[in-house]
Design a protein that fits this description.
Blueprint lengths: L2 E5 L3 H12 L3 E5 L23 E4 L5 H11 L3 H8 L1 E2 L4 E4 L1 H13 L4 E4 L14 E4 L7 H11 L4 E7 L2 E3 L9 E3 L9 E6 L1 H12 L13 E2 L6 H5 L26 E7 L6 E4 L8 H8 L10 E3 L2 E7 L21 E3 L9 H19 L12 H11 L28 H23 L10
Parallel strand pairs: 1-2, 1-7, 2-6, 7-17, 8-12
Antiparallel strand pairs: 3-5, 4-5, 8-16, 9-14, 9-15, 10-11, 11-13, 13-14
């Protein structure tokens, strides 16, 4: 019987593990927790969410929503878990972190052909004999394994910084100063909104840019990724940057019918509604400074913190020319076939990482079963992300999340479509039909690889 080693039990590793197990292949899953925790991880569970608890939009006219529907077609355990752990978040899919992780941890444990080894793997050469390897160690890959991967790939990994937003207890929010609403009244009023007038906004801004930050090794020399830009770094770009960014008041009105000068939004972070995270407030401020500066936000003057914001270094491969469209390492240098999955490949976002795990898992199964590689059509988000990672033509390769700009829509429109929403919906509908037909044609319904 074939065996594949999966290194890392984050979202991508768990998706790969399930695809392999469902295809009848033995899996040895390595996870270094609890022997060792990264700077951002706390829980022993699999698929731990360390930044936001949101998986973004659900509507297929949004590329993030389309990606999740594509993953549902491919039998994604992460999408299944997300809907089981869903908490109110308007038009977004947000989850209770613990319920989400527990569901996936239990799912992995239900497969008798999956062996879990809770031990830090320092080198791929230390793996037992296996037919293929899936490396899904994430952007917080340990130093020793990262050095081993650099040696294997023959290139230097690029680095950027990632940050998590603070989480506060709901009962410590002053509801006299806040109001519940969704932008433009769409969906239910799931967000707690903290309105600011002009004076409050600029006083907060001055305090923020003058606050003391925690030391982060190599922070000044490495790249700040836009998707998780610390709020204080964003503020440094100009007085009104936040007002037109995470604090934009567009589409929100107070109960009195007025549009605030700026708005800080809080999003539910757990199933019971006892925790809320401060949306867009990733930070590296020192903990006492977070309490002082964020305490200037109306409604958060006496907020109690379940978790302060933290920042850590992330690494990802310069994947074009290194990985192919199945996320397989083109030159494994004497090792069994090696696949990479997750943010280490250069995809950005929870579900994007999980999706790459699905593709890597399917292709690792196909490889050991002697079947042709499964290259997903670039007219789907799944295939477009893989193509981006493998073939990005420029010199400045940066992490990429789901978006319609990378999806191939050539030949889909005979004439220009002026309505952008309609155009996106037609691209989405074409992507879903294409993926269903492709999966049926390759015999991989639900992402399970079959030999017959």
């Amino acid at each position: 019987m074939h065996t594949v080693c999966v290194v890392g039990a984050g979202l991508a590793g768990c998706e790969a593990c399930v695809k392999l197990a469902e295809s009848g292949i033995n899996v040895i899953l390595y996870e270094m927790k609890p022997e060792r925790f990264s700077p951002a991880h706390r829980s022993e569970g699999f698929a731990e969410l360390v930044c936001s608890n949101s998986f973004k939009a659900v509507d297929i006219s949004n590329a993030s929503g389309l990606l999740k529907e594509e993953m549902r077609i491919l039998g994604s355990v992460c999408v299944e878990a997300a809907y089981k752990a869903r908490v109110p978040a308007g038009q977004a899919l947000a989850v209770d972190r613990n319920v989400f992780s527990d569901y996936i941890t239990a799912a992995i444990g239900s497969y008798p052909i999956v062996t879990v080894i809770r031990k830090e793997l320092r080198s791929l050469e230390d793996l037992p004999e296996c037919d293929a390897v899936v490396v899904a160690t994430g952007p917080l890959t340990s130093d020793s394994l990262a050095a081993d991967i650099k040696k294997l790939t023959g290139i230097d990994s690029l680095s950027f910084f990632d940050a998590a937003a603070p989480v506060v207890y709901a009962d410590s929010i002053d509801t006299e100063k806040t109001f519940r609403a969704a932008r433009y009244g769409k969906g239910t009023a799931d967000y707690i909104n903290c309105p600011m007038d002009k004076d409050e906004y600029y006083a907060f801004y001055e305090a923020l840019i003058g606050a003391e930050t925690a030391d982060v090794e190599d922070f000044d020399s490495l790249h700040l990724y836009e998707g998780c830009m610390p709020v204080e770094s964003m503020a440094m770009r100009g007085r009104d940057t936040l007002k037109f960014g995470p604090l934009k008041p567009v589409g929100l009105k107070t109960p009195e019918g007025k549009t605030p000068y700026a708005v800080v939004q809080l999003r539910q972070d757990d199933e019971k509604g006892e925790l809320f995270n401060i949306v867009g407030f990733q930070t590296r401020l020192k903990f006492p400074e977070q309490r002082r500066v964020f305490g200037m936000i109306p409604g958060l003057e006496n907020a109690e913190y379940a978790r302060y914001g933290v920042m850590h270094r992330n690494t990802y491969l310069k994947s074009p020319g290194i990985l192919d469209e199945t996320y397989m390492l083109i030159d494994s240098r004497g090792l069994p076939p090696v696949f990479f999955a997750g943010q280490i490949t250069g995809v950005e976002g929870y579900m994007e990482s999980a999706c790459s795990g699905i593709v890597a898992g399917i292709n690792a199964a196909a490889k050991v079963l002697g079947l042709p590689p499964v290259i997903f059509p670039a007219s789907t988000v799944t295939g477009a992300l893989a193509a981006y990672v493998a073939h990005f033509p420029g010199k400045d390769f940066q992490p990429m999340g789901a978006n319609f700009g990378i999806v191939d829509s050539s030949g889909l429109f005979e004439k220009k479509v002026r309505d952008k929403t309609e155009k996106k919906r037609r691209i989405a509908e074409n992507a879903l039909k294409t993926l269903r037909d492709f999966a049926d044609g390759r015999g991989i319904r639900d992402g399970i690889v079959r030999t017959s």
